[in-house]
Amino acid sequence: MLELAIGIILGCCALGAGMAMIAGIGPGIGEGNAVARACEAIGRQPEAKGSITSTLFIGCAIAETTGLYALVIAILLIFVAPNRLVDILMSTIG
Amino acid sequence: MSKKSRGFVAVDILYILGMILPILAVIVLKILTTPPSEGVSITGALIYFTIPMPIQDLPITEAQVNSAAVIISIFFLCLYMTHGLKEIPELKRQHIAEMIVEKAEAMIKDNMGDYFMGFTPFIAAMLALSAFSSLMSLFGVFPPTSDLNIVAGWAILVFALITYYKFKCGPINYAKSFADPPLLAPLNVISEIATPVSMALRHYGNIMSGTVIGVLVATALQGLSHMALSWAPEFIANIPFLRVGIPAVLSIYFDVFSSILQAYIFAMLTMLYVSGAFNIDLYEKIREKKRLAKEGKTEKKSKKDKNKEILEEK
Q1: Most exposed among A82, B89, B235, B239, judged by the fewest C-beta atoms under 10 Å?
Q2: Is B61 left (phi over 0), alpha (psi -120 to 50) or beta?
Q3: B87 inside domain
Q4: Which chain A positions have a beta carbon within 8 Å of B209's beta carbon?
Q5: Is the ipTM of this complex over 0.85?
Q6: Which residues, in sequence order, are CB contacts of B188 under 8 Å at separation 6+?
Q7: Cβ distance B45 to B142 under 8 Å?
């Protein structure tokens, strides 16, 4: 019974981590759009390449933030949550 | 004076040792303290020892020690670069140092304006500390920026600067800045708090994800090479031949490119947030008003004095 409970905890943590990373879709689409527009802009105005590239990098880094939130939650779910949940389970059983 | 004197060279060697020794010490410490483990494990910073404190024990972790080593190393690098400055540069390092300073000043001027020129050393220090901290992973030691606590400290510092520059126009204007569209005031407060959180998490997440992905790929390659060599006797099959070279390609992106990019972005965001927090037109208006008010008072006083004088004369 205890093994089943621990198995459910581990499995649910892994599932949750996987679901959290669905958030990776958003930054992917966003950064793709940004790069596409930047390429267009450089094609239209090659002399502004330097400033376009630096703006693009900053924009990409900011767009990445939501994905990184999801990543942090996924990492917490994989590496931190199982130990704590198993500890809680053990302490409640006694 | 093309030849350097003996004392000059000795000081140079001292500075170079000061640059290299902290990093070597950190590597040795890492080798000595890492517990033997089976297989691959992804862990946070090791805790070297804890100092007992009244409210909560203060753990001294790998991340803190490594960042201190980076700080000492950069300190000696700066001393080395500025050693033997002359009005007409003779040494190559003076050209490099001047180039760095000029680049930093141009960056501040472009992004923050003339009022913030005093920020150049701070931003350059931030950039160097962040970049070198992340690049520590090239030596195989724990990069300090892969620990949320270190980056959160920097983000809190930036948040304090933002608040200071918002407060410069007076507390009433500080409160007003949140009620820009009055209905969205709660959201503005949340976004103000989200600024340091997102800055810290962005930097930490990027560096840590690089470490995690590197370890996962290395493990997968080990398994693959074990499978590919499964026909051979065991001691040959255990050689992870696929791990040669392939993780290095990832390392170029995650350790070198991503580290430097994140350092640049952290410095850039610091500049943008701090200069965006300060409304220079409003500040000058308020100062002008105060100055006028003072002058008005003195003028009134002088008028009173004149009246008195006139009365006395009469």
Answers
A1: B235
A2: beta
A3: yes
A4: 68, 71
A5: no
A6: B177, B178, B179, B180
A7: yes
Contact B201 A61 (CB under 8 A): no
Burial track B52-87 (b if 16+ CB lie within 10 A, e otherwise): eeeeeeeeebbbbbbbebbbbbbebbbebbebeeee
d(CA B271, CA B119): 9
The model's pLDDT over B150-189, given as tens digits with 9 standing for 90+, comes to 999 999 999 999 999 888 888 888 888 888 777 888 888 8
CB-nearest partner of B201 from A57, A72, A79: A72
Lowest mean pLDDT among A15-19, B247-251, B285-289, B308-312: B308-312
Of chain B, the percentage scoring pLDDT greater than 70 comes to 92
Q: Is B11 a domain residue?
A: yes
Q: Where along chain A do its domains lie?
A: 2-93
Who among A57, A68, A75 is closest to B202 (CB)? A68
CATH of A2-93, one of 2.60.120.1130, 1.20.20.10, 3.10.310.10, 3.30.300.20: 1.20.20.10
Res. A33: pLDDT tops 90: yes
Element at B25 (helix H, strand E): helix B6-33
> Which residue reads 């302490």 in tokens?
A91
**B270 in a domain, yes or no?**
yes
Q: What is the pLDDT of residues B81-112, one digit of tens each?
A: 888 888 888 888 888 999 999 999 998 888 88
Q: What is the count of structural domains for chain B?
A: 1
Position with higher pLDDT, B34 vs B289: B289
For residue B34, pLDDT beyond 60: yes
Q: Say if B142 falls within a structural domain.
A: yes
| CA-wise closest residue to B194 among A47, A62, A46, A88 | A62
